[in-house]
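Subject: Sanity check before I submit

Could someone independently write out the structure tokens for this chain? I want to compare against mine line by line before I put it in a report. The sequence has 389 residues.
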Amino acid sequence: MVNQTLDKISKSGGSVLGSSEPSAVDKLETMMALSAMMNSALEKSDVRERAILAASNLVNCEATSLLFVNEETGGLYFDVALGDAGKELKTIQLERGQGIAGWVAEHNKPIIIKDAQQDPRLYKQADEKSGFYTRNMLCVPIRSNTTTLGVLQALNKRNGAFSKEDARLLFALANQIGVVLENLRLYDGLRDTLYSVVGVLVDVIEKHDPYATGHAKRVASYCKSIGKGMGLSKHDMVNLKLAALLHDVGMVGVPDAITHKKARLTEQEHSEVMKHIGYSEEILSNVKHLQAIIPAVRYHHEHWNGTGYFQRAGERIPLFSRIIAVADAFDSMTTERPYDLGKGYDGALKHLEDNAGVLYDPDIVNLFVNSKAPHSAKRHPLLIQRPKV
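---
Independent answer below. Compare away.
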């Protein structure tokens, strides 16, 4: 119901019922749908346009806009503006206190303007530049705690003038937007901290194993290309990136004598290396926000035909693990180690194609091989320059 309601609003340009006034049920559905969407949003862009589309539907107006405070100047800028005048409005910058929106931001009060052209606070240059004629206006502040973040405004009620009920609805929506934007700010800070921690872990891996330099980042880059090609969500792309960067984090538990060895590993040494899977789980389980990627890391050595470490096969292997397996194999085959000259660029691609449906997910191999991602391997300094196979 959530997605159906929001899609309905989006396709209608903001109003479910066109020129007629939305019913109480329509308004309730819109508020519930928007609440669910905003509370699960990970990016500001996911919130802003849907929020003002919902605002347009809630109060049944011709145009809506979302303005944010410029932290340096204290003025306002149009972040999102819907309606025919939207593109032109986004070029306008208001000074502190300028226009009706500026007054609302400065006084932190919602306001209903019944005759906008007669109000001296109206910033008429916006109408002149956009060709839009503002008859009436409803404008409410967007706040987070004690800070005014911006202003949400609705222009030209389709049927008559804006009411106190419209003001209450828009004010409630603006309050919710403020809470969500503050949560996203905190989430962004947490995400930045998490990436910093991951960066440190990757550096530790590379210092422990000098032959792993750049490996995690290249694997993450290949995984990003595959994920985009598969149409993964933003949330999944974040987790895939983290899993790719940390797929070998447990290698820090493998003795230096093995990771620095300049000859092929014995069977016993190989068994020691495979213990890094368990070490990875132990490390990641201690970081709450990384626990979700443990399955991807745990099963990235599995084979499509079930001959891998845990003998999982086909789609029983987590999707992220299957993606990492292809990216990891390709990078390993296109970088030199003292004990392994690898297969080179063309040989690596041939290996993936020959083993699609055997060692690797055939759909992922096909997507990767036919993408531009493998070509970036030609630029990294350890690439093996070998004749075409």
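---
OP: Matches mine. For the report I'm noting this point. Strands lie at 61-69, 76-81, 93-94, 111-113, 137-144, 147-157.
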